[in-house]
Amino acid sequence: MWLPVWLLCSHDSASNGGCMDQQVELNARRQEWYRAYFAGDIAKLCQLELPDFTYISVQGIEDTTTRYHTINQRLMDNNWFPAASRRDDVTSSYQFVGNCCYVTGEGVIYLAPGVSHNRYMSEVWVLDDSKGWQILSLHASVVPA
Fold first, then answer.
1. pLDDT at 10
2. Domain, as residue range, for 128
3. How far is the C-alpha of 30 from the C-alpha of 46, rounded, in Å?
């Protein structure tokens, strides 16, 4: 009989136990992914995303091919994020199960001085022995003002 074992790690919690190393490693990879996304670095995104990566937002569901096309088009139209854009976690929790992790929380995106907006997010990450953490899906929604 197989029983799943859940290990919950909370960013706000002082009792992270044995998952702290995994959480630190995954958080670094998450920050790398967000930097690549805001830069429109598709080559880097290809390294950090699984081939079946899916993005879900108020605009709908985007697969990898559609997203890369949209990013390329917006970069060519100079309609992408400003160079100084960045994202920080407001809250986050990590649930590790085997080689997967489900990350949930709220983040703030800074577009320019004094210009930011908050998003709820849920992410699914998969750990590959040779490639490290790769993202499988991201669901983002606007935090009501």
1. 40
2. 12-142
3. 14
